[in-house]
Amino acid sequence: MFNQIFLDQILFAVLPYVSLVVLLTVSIQRYRSQAFSYSSLSSQFLENQHHFWGVVPFHYGIITVLFGHLVGFLIPQQLLWWNSVPVRLYFFELTGFVFAILTLVGLISIIIRRMTNPKIKMVTSRADWIIFGIFIIQIITGLYMAVFHSWGSSWFATSMAPYMWSIVSFSPDVTYLTAMPWTVKLHIASAYFMLTFFPYTRLVHILVVPNPYLWRKPQVVRWYGNWKSKRVL
C-alpha cells in the first residue's frame, strides 16, 4: 500500500512538473542552438506511395482525440450536461473511439513504411522509434479504456479534469487517481513521458507552425569536391 501511494506521488505529482520543465528548457535550447532541426524532417520526397495513408489518418485522428480531451479539461460541466442525454453520450464516445482507431491505423502504416522501405529506414532515428512506442501505448490503453471502462468522457470530466487543474494550480491532488485502473494510470504516465521525450524528437515542428522561414537566417550548403567536373544528367 505504501509503495503504491509513493508511486502515485512520483508519477502524478512529481513527473508532470519534471516533464514540463524538460519540455520548456530543452525545446528553447534546441531552437536557439539548432533552429533548422525544428522540422518534421519529411520523408515524402523519398517515398510517397504509403505516405498519404499513414500521415493523413494519423493527423486527423490525433487532432480530434486531443480536441476531445481539451473539451473535457476546459469545460467539464458542459461536457457532463452534454452526456446527460444518452444519444449524445453515445455519439461523443463513438466519435472518440473511431478517431482513435483512425490514429492507430495511421500510426501502424507509418511504422510499417519506416520499417520496410530502406530509404525511409535510413532517415529514421532511435528517437523516432521510441516516440512511436509511446504513441502505441497511448492509443492501445485509450482504446482499452473505451471498451472496458465505458463512458470515459464523463469520468474524465469528474476525475481527470479536477486532477489536471490541480496540476495547473501547483497543488497536485493525486487522490482523484488513486482508485483508477492500472490502464488509466499507464495512459496518464505515458503522456507525461511523451512530453519529457518530445523536445528530442521531430515532433517539435508543431511548436513553430507556421514556421518563420521568411525571417530566419538562410541555410548554408557546402559542396565538397569539384562540382565543375560533375555532369548534369
Report what the structure shows:
The protein is mostly helical. The chain has one domain: Fumarate Reductase Cytochrome B subunit. The chain contains 8 helices and no strands. It has helices at residues 2-33, 51-74, 76-83, 86-116, 118-122, 126-148, 152-168, 182-197. Helix 2 (51-74) packs antiparallel against helix 4 (86-116) and helix 6 (126-148) runs antiparallel to helix 8. Mean pLDDT is 83; it is low at 210-215.
CATH superfamily: Transmembrane di-heme cytochromes, Chain C
Morphology call: globular
Which class in CATH terms? Mainly Alpha
Distance between the termini: 71 Å
pLDDT averaged residue by residue = 83
Task: Count the beta strands.
Answer: 0
Fill in the keyword field for this structure.
233 residues, globular, single chain, 0% strand, Fumarate Reductase Cytochrome B subunit, mainly alpha
List the helices and strands and how they pair.
Blueprint: H1 2-33, H2 51-74, H3 76-83, H4 86-116, H5 118-122, H6 126-148, H7 152-168, H8 182-197
In short, what is this structure?
With 233 residues, this protein is mainly α.
